[in-house]
């Protein structure tokens, strides 16, 4: 039972342990779905060790009503009574985890459909998200916000991010662990020349801020409460890899905002960081759109360990490796 004691003692103090536990529970959801697809049951199932090792129990599977695939799970931390003491109360009692896209016949069609919804800023309109957010609300209402973590990878990270943002708008700030969450933007971060990259970001910010000011919605927002201010107290843990073009733009997103402040045009940067060109164009055509990937604050954790290819850079497996070379920085919206 040494792993139970490790979780209880280290979970609040050791960032590596928290990251590893969250990533493992997300992987558990993925294996649950693969077990379903290939009909592995009972002692043949491969999923249980991913949560049982840390003394979690599977409370509920979250199932998509379109293709019956398992896309999420609710876990409860239940250590043996001999190890149950006051410090457990300060650890998460429940983790709600969401898997990423699985490119197998049993789920790939629905998963890719939802990936497109992310690009179109329409994930909030899907029945899968409705199932997810209802599950989050029910658990929080039952056990309290301090006892719940959210976790997800790729498509699942987008699901957890949207759930976290939705709850934060009501004043409920949940711990969230978002692995390789998609950032829908031109891959400026891939440009090696720092001067060119910085110049492109400034130009993009000026254009985005200008278009935002030109829209009625942004004009109204500029004279009312800053929409980002209401979310700024929510600080998810955002895990990205520079070699993963799906999420690497988060690095430039937060660093550029600070640079805009440093050169005296922070107001432009703050307005630009709340909007996207795609979202503004969609709003201009009459379709209200709030870009999912834009968030005010985050604890940004970047994996600087060299990767062999994109698959490794995007994979969930990297996040429980003990030899990671990571850089962590806290960004608070002001």
Automatic annotation (TrEMBL):
GO molecular function, one term: hydrolase activity
Highest taxon, organism lineage: Eukaryota
A Gene Ontology BP annotation from the UniProt entry: lipid metabolic process
Keywords, alphabetical: Hydrolase
Residue ranges occupied by any Fungal lipase-type domain in the UniProt entry: 129-173
A Pfam short name: Lipase_3
Protein name: GDSL esterase/lipase
Organism: Populus alba x Populus x berolinensis
């Amino acid at each position: 039972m040494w792993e139970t004691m490790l979780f209880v003692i280290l979970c609040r103090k050791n960032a590596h342990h928290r990251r590893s536990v969250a990533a493992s529970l997300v992987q558990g959801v993925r294996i649950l779905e693969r077990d379903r697809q290939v009909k592995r049951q009972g002692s043949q199932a491969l999923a249980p060790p991913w949560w049982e090792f840390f003394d979690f129990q599977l409370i509920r599977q979250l199932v998509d009503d379109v293709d019956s695939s398992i896309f999420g799970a609710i876990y409860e931390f239940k250590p043996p009574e001999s190890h149950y003491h006051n410090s457990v109360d300060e650890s998460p009692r429940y983790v709600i985890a969401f898997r990423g896209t699985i490119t197998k016949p049993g789920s790939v069609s629905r998963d890719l459909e939802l990936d497109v919804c992310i690009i179109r800023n329409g994930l909030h309109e899907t029945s899968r998200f409705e199932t997810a957010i209802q599950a989050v609300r029910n658990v929080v209402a039952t056990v309290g916000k301090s006892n719940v973590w959210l976790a997800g990878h790729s498509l699942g990270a987008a699901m957890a991010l949207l759930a976290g943002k939705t709850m934060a708008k009501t004043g409920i700030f949940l711990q969230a662990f978002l692995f390789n969450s998609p950032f829908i933007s031109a891959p400026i971060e891939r440009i090696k020349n720092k001067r060119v990259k910085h110049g492109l970001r400034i130009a993009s910010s000026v254009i985005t801020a200008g278009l935002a000011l030109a829209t009625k919605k942004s004009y109204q927002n500029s004279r009312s409460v800053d929409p980002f201010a209401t979310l700024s107290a929510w600080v998810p843990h955002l895990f990205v890899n520079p070699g993963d073009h799906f999420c690497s733009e988060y690095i430039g997103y937060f660093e550029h905002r600070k640079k805009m402040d440093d050169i005296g045009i922070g107001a432009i940067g703050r307005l630009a960081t709340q909007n996207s060109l795609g979202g503004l164009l969609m709003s201009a055509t009459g379709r209200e759109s709030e870009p999912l990937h834009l968030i005010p604050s985050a604890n940004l954790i970047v994996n600087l360990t060299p990767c062999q290819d994109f698959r490794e850079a995007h994979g969930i497996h990297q996040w429980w490796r003990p030899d990671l070379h990571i850089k962590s920085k806290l960004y608070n919206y002001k």
